[in-house]
Amino acid sequence: MGWGDENPKLRSVDECIALLRLKNQTFWDVLGFGDFGVAEVPEELKSAVPTAQGGWVQLDEDLVKRVDLNALRWVGYACLRDATGVITKQRETWLQEHDALPSVAYAGPLPPWQEMVEIKYGLSPDHWGKGYASEIASFLHAWGIAAHGVRRYIGGTLKTNAGSRRVLQKTGFVSNPERLWVDSDHVEFGDEWMYTVPSTS
Q1: In terms of Cα–Cα distance, which of 54, 56, 99, 106 is closest to 84?
Q2: What is the pLDDT of residues 61-84, one digit of tens each?
Q3: How many other CB atoms sit within 10 Å of the CB of residue 119?
Q4: What domains does the chain contain, in order, with CATH numbers?
């Protein structure tokens, strides 16, 4: 989720793009997920794409290669991210109790990454209020669970971002007062949300 004006500009656009490409490739190489570009479905793919909200299929690579990416109407981005490394409250508590270095913190009692997966998305203003965010969130939920065994999602929103709050509520998120992720620097303007995947056993 975006944090708005509270985060000042620190890098140029080109620097951000280069950094995101490197980080995203690392996520895909190691965990098999990361950032997605989101576009409206072109006519030549509509017959291969589910119409039900939240449904998804992995399209044949040869079919996708025939699509003119420059002709697509881009909606925004979506992302699943391993957020274990940013659960500030638990990480600092563990380090204090064990007098340990950050590099070994993840061998301790912190949750596995399947229980700390961040869901993120961003839309162009032309696509606000049209149901795209809910559809994106539904896809991320279903795909993360089916393809990667995700057991819990987390997310953060600005208190003033009523649209994102509604999207998270519609997709099953509830407010998380324990704040495992949103730290004290964000607490005045940010809310933390959590979705735990129901057990099938």
Answers
A1: 106
A2: 887 788 887 888 889 988 888 877
A3: 26
A4: 4-196 (3.40.630.30)
